């Protein structure tokens, strides 16, 4: 490579490094429902550039939308005040310095792709996806023991059901019985079209020769890196934990005294007292007789 060619390449690199650029772009990947989300977009002008023709815009595309659904939510045109553009069901936007904006008290509808556009004759863009999540309520396990019909030679089965409500974004579910994931029938729906989903799943498994088993239900996201929500229940075969039927030994109880027994007891005491009285008089008589005999 000649010196002139090398110099030309160096000038091109220098010129390229001095063009309009976005030096800081921040969109949080995940924000919990009810919290605020700050979006930052700071640019740097090229050498000898001015802001005479500058404008900065923020765009939002709903999570389930396409490029045709893209909506402008912010703009600042050189020489004019910055302006936030609100849309139905989305959060209020607070304007900060340096073309940063804050989505206040976010809800699932705010999920989507956020794009910052900076233009000063030439145009540059950057974008990132934000997901608003909610753990909702649940999951909650319910199970029902179904006893076999001996006439049809069926096996005892267990109906396992699990549900969770007001989850965002759209969730998935898994049910695990005795350490093994089982096939389930699932239903996920956003009834109110507000970004909150309800999910329900059920499965029927054989519990032949199974007296006890652990049931896990996990609800998780497929578009977000977040720990699953888990409920755990223990199945115990009906009757296995029944209390013993043997009657405890009772202490011997002495019979209560009756009116007749009290009368008999009183009569016995009177007869004993009469015998002592007769013996006493006999003793006195014997003593007196002995005394008279000695005097004679």
UniProtKB/TrEMBL annotation:
<protein>
    <recommendedName>
        <fullName>Ig-like domain-containing protein</fullName>
    </recommendedName>
</protein>
<feature type="signal peptide">
    <location>
        <begin position="1"/>
        <end position="19"/>
    </location>
</feature>
<dbReference type="InterPro" id="IPR013106">
    <property type="entry name" value="Ig_V-set"/>
</dbReference>
<dbReference type="InterPro" id="IPR013783">
    <property type="entry name" value="Ig-like_fold"/>
</dbReference>
<keyword id="KW-0732">Signal</keyword>
<dbReference type="InterPro" id="IPR007110">
    <property type="entry name" value="Ig-like_dom"/>
</dbReference>
<feature type="region of interest" description="Disordered">
    <location>
        <begin position="238"/>
        <end position="268"/>
    </location>
</feature>
<dbReference type="InterPro" id="IPR036179">
    <property type="entry name" value="Ig-like_dom_sf"/>
</dbReference>
<dbReference type="InterPro" id="IPR003599">
    <property type="entry name" value="Ig_sub"/>
</dbReference>
<feature type="compositionally biased region" description="Low complexity">
    <location>
        <begin position="242"/>
        <end position="252"/>
    </location>
</feature>
<feature type="domain" description="Ig-like">
    <location>
        <begin position="34"/>
        <end position="132"/>
    </location>
</feature>
<dbReference type="Pfam" id="PF07686">
    <property type="entry name" value="V-set"/>
</dbReference>
């Amino acid at each position: 490579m000649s010196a002139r060619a090398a110099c030309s390449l160096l000038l091109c690199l220098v010129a390229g490094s001095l063009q309009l650029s976005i030096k800081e772009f921040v969109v949080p990947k995940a924000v919990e429902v009810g919290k605020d989300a700050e979006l930052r977009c700071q640019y740097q002008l090229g050498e000898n550039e001015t802001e005479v023709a500058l404008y900065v815009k923020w765009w939002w595309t709903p999570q389930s939308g396409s490029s045709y659904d893209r909506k402008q939510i912010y703009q600042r045109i050189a020489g004019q005040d910055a302006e936030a553009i609100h849309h139905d069901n989305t959060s209020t936007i607070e304007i900060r310095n340096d073309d940063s904006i804050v989505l206040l008290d976010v809800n699932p509808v705010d999920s989507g792709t956020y794009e910052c556009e900076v233009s000063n004759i030439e145009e540059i863009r950057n974008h990132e996806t934000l997901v608003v999540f909610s753990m909702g309520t649940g999951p909650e396990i319910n199970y029902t023991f179904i006893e076999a019909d001996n006439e049809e030679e069926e096996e005892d089965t267990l109906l396992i059901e699990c549900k969770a409500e007001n989850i965002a974004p759209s969730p998935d579910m898994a049910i695990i019985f005795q350490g093994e994931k089982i096939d389930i029938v699932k239903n996920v729906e956003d009834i109110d079209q507000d970004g909150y989903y309800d999910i329900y799943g059920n499965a029927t498994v054989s519990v032949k020769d199974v007296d006890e088993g652990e049931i896990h239900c996990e609800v998780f996201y497929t578009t977000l890196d977040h720990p699953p929500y888990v409920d755990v229940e223990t199945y115990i075969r009906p009757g296995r934990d029944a209390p013993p039927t043997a009657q405890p030994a009772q202490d011997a109880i002495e019979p209560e005294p009756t009116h007749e027994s009290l009368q008999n007891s009183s009569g016995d005491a009177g007869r004993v007292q009469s015998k002592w009285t007769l013996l006493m008089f006999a003793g006195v008589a014997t003593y007196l007789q002995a005394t008279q005999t000695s005097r004679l």
